[in-house]
């Protein structure tokens, strides 16, 4: 677990100082739009709480970490004995962390073979509870970071409740997530909640263009909208090879039954893109403005009943998007459903649809 690879986003320095000044409880919950840097900020907060510099000790961790003391180095390398980071196995794999590292030696082989879980399992929570019961190693605090906290299932969350309500000694819990409504009320009520604000659009566009030379501001704006305003979501689309042109062409391709470049996208992302198209078509049908696609790319003359039925089909497809389908056949099925849904509504005859 190399934490140093997860650095604060450029606009988060001021946000970090504000968070450190406000997060005073032993259990805190940072929430905001997914992909807005929750994990990076949470790790920076945990690092500040564990920092051993004189300034940090004097301020009780309410100032950013120095980045140079032994504790900061241990956090950066993932070996701080008083820091426990819990993320789903699938996220560990995407971050390059060894998701079998916490398994018993006899189980590590099996951990490597099985499919990484999308949830934070109860076994990981039990390990965190045991971690809380040991004494502090470096005389600052013990920090348990859970991200995203909404990935705890009911059993995992209930296992955490007692320790979360009354953390022993100098234990501090730091939970981060997307929507706070996705957190169980019993967990939410035990935490000090703090909303992570979204950055200004200009700062995000500058960051995307700097990180991807040759990307124009207009294309960055299209992809940022495609990601729902999520900075890291837009960066992930660029990493996967998405282009603004392909995104803008998606509604036309779907209406014409053409499997464009998007047909090669991973199935969960393709389903997500079609759900966004369905959302924008429904908004346009009701006289609203599109959120994810340019307004000129979204027709308003669709049939709302068809879109409603398509939305239900997409919800079903999303639940099983990680299933090992035959990719070609599944894309063809999704395209057939989409083309049927986006056709213009029948003409009105005598005040009723034909």
Automatic annotation (TrEMBL):
Name the Pfam families on file. DNA_pol3_delta2 (PF13177)
**Entry-linked SUPFAM superfamilies:** P-loop containing nucleoside triphosphate hydrolases (SSF52540)
Query: Cellular component GO terms, alphabetically?
Result: DNA polymerase III complex
User: Could you tell me the Gene Ontology terms of the biological process aspect for this record?
Assistant: DNA-templated DNA replication
Q: Which InterPro entries match?
A: DNA_Rep/Repair_Clamp_Loader (IPR050238), P-loop_NTPase (IPR027417)
* The name this protein goes by in its record: DNA polymerase III subunit delta
């Amino acid at each position: 677990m190399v934490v140093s690879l997860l650095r604060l986003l450029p606009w988060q320095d001021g946000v970090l100082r504000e968070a450190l000044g406000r997060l005073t409880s032993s259990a805190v919950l940072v929430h905001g739009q997914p992909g807005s840097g929750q994990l990076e900020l949470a790790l920076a907060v945990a690092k500040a709480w564990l920092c051993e510099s004189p300034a940090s000790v004097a301020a009780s961790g309410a100032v950013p970490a120095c980045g140079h003391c032994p504790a900061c180095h241990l956090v950066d390398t993932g070996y701080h004995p008083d820091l426990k980071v819990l993320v789903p196995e699938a996220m560990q794999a995407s971050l390059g962390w060894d998701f079998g590292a916490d398994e018993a030696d006899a189980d590590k082989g099996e951990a490597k073979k099985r499919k990484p879980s999308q949830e934070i399992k109860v076994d990981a929570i039990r390990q965190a509870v045991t971690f809380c019961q040991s004494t502090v190693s470096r005389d600052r605090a013990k920090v348990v970071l859970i991200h995203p906290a909404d990935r705890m299932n009911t059993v995992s969350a209930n296992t955490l409740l007692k320790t979360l309500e009354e953390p022993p000694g100098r234990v501090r819990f730091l939970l981060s997530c997307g929507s706070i409504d996705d957190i169980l009320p019993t967990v939410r009520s035990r935490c000090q909640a703090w909303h992570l604000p979204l950055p200004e659009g200009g700062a995000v566009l500058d960051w995307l263009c700097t990180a991807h030379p040759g990307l124009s501001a207009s294309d960055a704006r299209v992809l940022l909208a495609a990601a729902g305003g999520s900075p890291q979501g837009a960066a992930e689309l660029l990493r996967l090879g998405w282009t603004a042109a392909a995104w803008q062409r998606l509604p036309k391709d779907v209406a014409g039954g053409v499997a464009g470049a998007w047909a090669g996208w991973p199935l969960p992302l393709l389903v997500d893109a079609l759900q966004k198209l369905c959302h924008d078509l429904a908004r346009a049908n009701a006289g609203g403005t599109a959120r994810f696609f340019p307004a000129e790319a979204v027709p308003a003359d669709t049939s709302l009943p068809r879109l409603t039925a398509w939305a239900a089909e997409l919800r079903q497809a999303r639940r099983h998007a990680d299933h090992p389908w035959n990719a070609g056949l599944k894309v063809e099925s999704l395209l057939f459903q989409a083309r049927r849904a986006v056709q213009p509504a029948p003409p009105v005859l005598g005040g009723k649809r034909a």
